[in-house]
Amino acid sequence: MNNDHKKHNNVSPDFLIVESMKRAGVDIICSVPCNLLAGILAEIDRRGFTHIRVCREEEGVGIAAGAALAGKRSLLLMQNSGLGNSLNALVSLTALYRLPLFLLMSRRGGSGEQISAQMPMGCAAPRLLRTLGIEYCDIRERNDIRLLARTIRAAYARRSIQAAFLWRELWQ
Question: How does strand 74-79 pair with strand 161-167?
Answer without folding.
Answer: unpaired
